């Protein structure tokens, strides 16, 4: 069997960790920075920070096309370089308007970088270990998402300096750029198609139902990640448990790699997807059901709260690499960038809708109603997969070793 952990693959994984670490080390503290440094109100903070996601979403379709149409190493280095430089912009932004411009524009290189780095990871993987390798690749950003916010909060409490954190993010991002600069890619002929531009250059239309399914799962996580803290405090009476919740979620993600590694090695991606979706649905249901069934009973509520974190992490850890593999395997070799951007776009759309709809439902009815909406949307995604998406993938799958 070909070697999975080759030098180039390890470098790309390390670079992926640095880019997500640099991003997430600031994420929990930016609202505080905007409030303290610029006196921004809650609605303005939400507006400023949402610009990043919108720009990343706009860039991703074009990133897939560019990664497939130009030398990937060049695209990777330019996007990583731009991503790193923008952290210096945070240090230089002296007004709220300048900070808003920098933050919004920063989403562009982030969107391009996540697509190009994950596509390069696929290029340096041996074809016989690709399905398994994609699963492990996702672990590098999962770990960054778990570790970076905790480190960021600890450093801020120690130094009381946002400037120090901006410098840290800049240095870590530059380190990632240096690591990626040493990656050696296999030679690949760039095919210049002379046909007119079509939607399939930017979004993998062959995988549209896979993308639609991913929107449902992104929606669920969008509501959870944005309204968890306030729901925990107001409904469950849990304060300060958000960090622990996401750490447990990350433990579930890591366990999923250990539990689902064999299935991925054997190319059983639909099995992993089905397993992950069902586990996640149980997690989301447990999260909202326990406070409903046992109001004001601390032990069952805590078991439901923290138990759901492990289950949702475990479920997403199975589901995400499986869907990424399925999308890549319905694409041709010269559409890998487009396939990667498609899965990321679908997740981002779902996350955005979750944040928007969750906020509206919470305002009009309650936070509990917003989380019941999550269960409904998630169950719809699971049902769609079993009734239609699995057969859709089987018909369009271009890789007979994956099923």
Topology:
Elements: H1 7-24, H2 30-38, H3 42-69, H4 72-92, H5 96-124, H6 130-159, H7 162-181, H8 208-234, H9 242-265, H10 269-293, H11 298-329, H12 336-364, H13 367-396
Number of helices: 13
Distance between the termini: 20 Å
- What structural category arises from helix and sheet content? mainly alpha
Shape: globular
Oligomer: single chain
Largest sheet: none
Rg (C-alpha, Å): 21 Å
What helical percentage do the residues reach? over 70%
DSSP strand count: 0
Proportion of residues in β-strands: under 5%
The H-and-E topology, N to C, reads as HHHHHHHHHHHHH
What would the average pLDDT be, to the nearest integer? Answer: 85
Q: Which stretches are low in confidence, meaning pLDDT under 50 for 5 or more residues running?
A: none
Question: What tags apply to this protein structure?
Answer:
80% helix; mainly alpha; 403 residues; 13 helices; globular
3D structure, described in words:
80% of the residues lie in helices and 0% in strands. It contains 13 helices and no strands. The protein has 403 residues and is mostly helical. The longest helix has 32 residues, at 298-329. Helix 1 runs antiparallel to helix 7 (162-181), helix 3 runs parallel beside helix 5 and helix 8 (208-234) runs parallel beside helix 12 (336-364). It has helices spanning 7-24, 30-38, 42-69, 72-92, 96-124, 130-159, 162-181, 208-234, 242-265, 269-293, 298-329, 336-364, 367-396.
């Amino acid at each position: 069997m070909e070697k999975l952990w080759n030098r180039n693959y390890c470098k790309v994984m390390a670079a992926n960790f640095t880019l997500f670490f640099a991003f997430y080390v600031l994420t929990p503290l930016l609202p505080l920075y905007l409030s303290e440094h610029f006196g921004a109100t809650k609605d303005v903070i939400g507006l400023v920070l949402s610009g990043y996601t919108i720009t990343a979403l706009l860039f991703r379709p074009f990133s897939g096309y560019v990664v497939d149409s130009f030398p990937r190493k060049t695209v990777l280095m330019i996007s990583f370089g731009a991503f790193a430089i923008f952290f210096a912009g945070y240090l230089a932004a002296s007004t709220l308007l300048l900070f808003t411009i920098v933050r919004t524009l920063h989403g562009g290189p982030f969107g391009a970088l996540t697509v190009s780095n994950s596509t390069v990871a696929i290029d340096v993987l041996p074809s016989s270990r690709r399905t398994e390798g994609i699963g492990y690749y996702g672990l590098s950003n999962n770990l960054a998402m778990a570790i970076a916010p905790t480190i960021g909060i600890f450093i801020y409490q120690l130094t009381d300096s946002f400037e120090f954190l901006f410098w840290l993010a800049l240095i870590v991002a530059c380190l990632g750029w240096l690591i990626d600069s040493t990656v050696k890619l296999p030679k690949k002929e760039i095919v210049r198609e002379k046909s007119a531009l079509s939607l399939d250059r930017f979004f993998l239309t062959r995988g549209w139902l896979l993308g639609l399914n991913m929107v449902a799962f992104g929606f669920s996580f969008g509501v959870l990640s944005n309204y968890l803290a306030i729901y925990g405090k107001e409904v469950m009476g849990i304060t300060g448990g958000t960090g622990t919740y996401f750490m447990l979620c990350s433990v579930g993600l890591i366990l999923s790699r250990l539990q689902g590694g064999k299935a991925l090695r054997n190319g059983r991606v639909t099995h992993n997807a089905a397993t992950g979706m069902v586990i996640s649905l149980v997690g989301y249901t447990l999260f909202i059901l326990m406070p409903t069934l046992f109001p004001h009973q601390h032990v069952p509520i805590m078991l439901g709260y923290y138990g759901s974190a492990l289950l949702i992490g475990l479920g997403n850890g199975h589901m995400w690499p499986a869907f990424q593999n399925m999308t890549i395997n319905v694409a041709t070799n010269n559409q890998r960038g487009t396939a990667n951007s498609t899965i990321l776009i679908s997740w981002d759309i779902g996350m955005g809708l979750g944040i928007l709809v969750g906020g509206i439902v919470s305002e009009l009815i309650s936070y509990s109603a917003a989380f019941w909406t999550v269960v409904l949307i998630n169950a719809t995604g699971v049902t769609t997969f079993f009734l239609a998406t699995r057969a859709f993938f089987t018909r369009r799958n271009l890789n007979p070793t994956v099923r």
